[in-house]
Amino acid sequence: MVTDHVRRLIEHPGALQVLEFAGGLVQLVAVKAFYGGPLVGQDLAFLRRHMPNVDTRVAAIYRRNRPIIPRGDTVIEADDEVFFLAARRDIRAVMSELRRVERDFRRVVIAGGGNIGERLAEHLEHSHQVKIIEHSLERCTTLSERLDRTVVLHGSATSKRLLEEENIEECDIFCALTNDDEVNIMSSLLAKRLGAKKVLTLINNAAYVDLVQGGEIDIAISPQQATIGSLLTHVRRGDIVNVHSLRRGAAEAIEAIAHGDKQSSKVVGRTIREIDLPDGTTIGAIVRGKEVIIAHGDVMVESGDHVILFVIDKRRIRDVERLFQVGLTFF
Question: Which class in CATH covers the domain with range 228-330?
Answer without folding.
Answer: alpha beta
